[in-house]
Amino acid sequence: MEIDPGILEKLLVNVGKPIRYVGGEWNAIRKNHDDVDVKVLLAFPDTYEIGMSHLGLRILYSILNTRDDVVCERTFMPWIDMYDAMMNSGIPLYSLESRHPARDFDILGFSLQYELSYTNVLAMLDLAGIPMLSAKRGEDEPLVIAGGPCVYNPEPIADFLDAILIGEGEEAIGEIVDTQKDAKANRLSRLELLENLARIPGVYVPSFYRVSYLPDGKIKEVEPRNPAASYPVKKRVVRDLSQVGYPENVITPLTEIVHDRAVLEVFRGCTRGCRFCQAGMVYRPVRERAPDEVLKLAENILKNTGYNEISLMSLSSADYSHIREVSRNLLDERKDQGISVSLPSLRVDSFSIDLAKEVQKGRRTGLTFAPEAGTQRLRNVINKGVTHDDLIHAATSAFSEGWHSLKLYFMIGLPTETEDDLKGIVDMAKETLECGRRELKQAGIRKRPEVTVSVSSFVPKAHTPFQWQPQMPREELARRQAYLKKHLRGKGLRLTWHDVDKSFLEAVLSRGSRRLGPVIEAAYRRGCKFSAWDSEFRFDKWTKGFQSHNVSPEFYGNTKWEYGDILPWDHISSGVSKEFLIEEANRALSGVFTPDCRSGRCPDCGVCKSLKVSPQVMSRVRKEVSE
Amino acid sequence: MSAAGEPLHDCEVPVCTWRIQMTKTGATKYMSHLDFVRTVERSARRAELPITLSGGFNPRPRISFAPALPVGVSSNSEFVDIMLKESVDVDEASRKLNESFPDGMRVVSSRILPPKTPALSTIIQAAVYRLDLHFDAQVGLDCVLTAIDRVLDRDSIVVTHVTPKGARRRDLRPLIYEIRAESRDSIVSVYATVATGSRGNVRPFDLAEIILESKGIESKDAFVDITREGLYAFRDGSLCLPW
């Protein structure tokens, strides 16, 4: 049964931005639910504007709807006014396309992009009228699954999910749907369905594992208790991106979303090997798309959406072997259509500045560099291959090309950080500003240079060389922020920072075990929703959640763990070996650089061997062919 | 200033203005005016119409609009001007645009006008809104007609709008030209002709509240579904469509 349109209309006139709750977008797909075998609802636990900007959702939506036997629809977390209105008038969470209640779908698939969205997952289940705990769900209830970067440590949210896909979904989602279809046709029990799902490579069924603890709270053992459960669960990875399809009939929203442009993933994975970066570890290996494929896709996507801007996306777009050729081609071919190209995540070098200059033409919209740390010593620790000279060269050429506003991105609280490193941040910022004054004056540009320093706090993440490291205590992080606030003052300097309580909670949830499940539930029951939003973050309510379940957040956030410890996520494998992570952790402490495997030198991270894949770098492919 | 680069484009010269009358109904009634502008631009691009681009670093399609429609109000008669760099067959262009519009947006009628036609924002001066009143309790046509008479009998109707710049008081009475009502099934439809655009603006939600209040009906007890049925220019003292 669809949601009563009359009741919904009455709610919509009284909430902010009702367009987020009505669907009807260009390229959204409508199918008759009676004509399909499996109904999938993709659920994003944040607002429409954020969820619709997420590429993974678009990819899965397109892959699933290509099948005639499947319907795939979308739902997002309603903003608080709408959430309360729905709760009060008995309107359950519904899909945007057909306005069917979430409960009527076979599969409810959550995208877990950041830990602070966990209470929204519970809020959405609650609004849907689906029991929050997996153990309490009945035979006829939808299967609740999840995927996304957070699932590399799925333990804090494991109690609420029936099954979790570790890794890339393009191929596995079809297998999951087939398994569900088969279970429906053969009237299998929920347990049998879960067993069949657990047999799919990459699928983790949390209820099939028993976790036991040591007296100090560390993990004693994670034991598979069902023959269908594998140990470890290895992530799924797509060997060749060109073989799995890419969404060309992309939904074009009726309202402005966060990344309101066509998005084209030019490659997946990044092997620069920054030691704090989870994405750089878990999305290995690097797989590039061929330039002609990129151009063909770009043409179709622009034509099908009517967007006039396309973003060539990846974890480090200037690293794409054909970046210059592809962006030039895109701009030249469409000169008369007013198409622009954007390149997120540029490097700190003059190649990147040249690129930015080409794609931004006359529009100097601002540039961001990420040196991450203030001294060469600390940059060696984190394996960030950027030098002081790189930054100054990049800044010099940026200012002389007419940019007057630069943003520098740093992290504080990194392992081994001292006051020297903080001073390094201040010095770099001031030197960059000075360089701006000089260059702008020389170029005859009468504008004041501006340098914005954005500092986030280090959060140790699972499956990185820093996974054993504690986050610094909040008081210490606050002291370091205060140092920067004191010293980064003056004309042309701006500083932005992150809330330390939020970063702390992020660390706790990133390194947490299943003992955090009840805490997340308690936080939700106390009203924590949209915790990733500064305006809605209520640390006191979270604190009460920890207290009521006798869980020490400091144990997860601020404790150094030993290499020999069993970590809460050790039964999940990203393909990168623990030996490599330990080796990298040791190299970090002695400040030894590990090169990118794009260079041809294999640092032996283990991913290719473990997952039987290999890096796909187009320049190298071509060379091999010509040789 | 050479360092800021050369503009990508000079402003292109249109050969004609294609003025379209279109609907904005269904889900699209919840779009804000900015959402509407973006969606028309994208639809026109999908339809591959020969739109003129503005000049500058960030060329925009030259499309202009009638006074904004409030969020949540449907329209059966929006007007949009698309400046074209070559002339088109009106039927063919309408077909292409309709195929590229999301559900709820549809070309009703359109004409090719000379390139220097006065802008919609200057000529549009009146709108007709249909307010469909759905009552929870039994409130009939007679009751609404009495309410309308009371509103029209007033000398002034001062409303206070809270804006970011502070409260602003305005008299709406001179901006209300005509109100009539009819009933079909259990719904009473009020048709109101009011000023919009350069002569001042009556917000249809305000109008609904004023009518309901004059009979002591709390606006929260009624659900009001509003549709803009017409946008007009004044010519020789009477209303006419902006062709």
Q: Your description of this structure?
A:
The complex is a heterodimer of chains A (627) and B (243). Chain A is built from 22 helices and 19 strands. Chain A is an alpha/beta fold and 627 residues long. Chain A has a domain at 5-234: Response regulator (Rossmann fold, 3-Layer(aba) Sandwich), CATH 3.40.50.2300. In chain A, strands 2-1-3-4-5-6 form a six-stranded mixed sheet, with helices on one face. Chain B has 243 residues and is an alpha+beta fold. In chain B, strands 1, 2, 3, 4, 5, 8, 9, 10 and 11 form a nine-stranded mixed sheet that branches. A two-stranded antiparallel sheet of chain B has the order 6-7. Chain A binds chain B through residues 6, 9-10, 12-13, 17-19, 22-26, 252, 254-256, 303-308, 335-338, 340, 361-364, 400-402, 443-445, and chain B through 1, 3-9, 26-28, 30-32, 34-35, 38-39, 41-46, 53, 57-61, 71-72, 100, 102-104, 223, 225.
Question: What topology emerges from the helices and strands here?
Answer:
The complex is a heterodimer of chains A (627) and B (243).
Chain A lengths: L4 H8 L25 E7 L3 H4 L3 H12 L3 E7 L3 H10 L17 E5 L6 H11 L14 E5 L15 E3 L3 H17 L4 H9 L4 E2 L4 E5 L5 E6 L8 E2 L27 E4 L1 E2 L9 H5 L4 E2 L2 H15 L3 E5 L9 H11 L6 E3 L7 H11 L6 E6 L3 H6 L6 H13 L4 E8 L6 H24 L7 E8 L16 H14 L5 E5 L2 H11 L6 H9 L13 H10 L4 H5 L14 E2 L4 H12 L17 H5 L6 H9 L1
Parallel strand pairs in A: 1-2, 1-3, 3-4, 4-5, 9-19, 10-13, 13-14, 15-16, 16-17, 17-18
Antiparallel strand pairs in A: 5-6, 7-8, 11-12
Helix pairs in contact in A: 1-4, 3-6, 5-17, 6-7, 9-10, 11-13, 13-14, 14-15, 17-18
Chain B lengths: L15 E9 L8 H14 L16 E3 L8 E11 L5 H11 L4 E9 L6 H4 E12 L5 H13 L4 E6 L2 E6 L4 E9 L2 E9 L8 H11 L7 E14 L2 E3 L3
Parallel strand pairs in B: 3-10
Antiparallel strand pairs in B: 1-3, 1-4, 2-3, 5-9, 5-10, 6-7, 8-9, 10-11
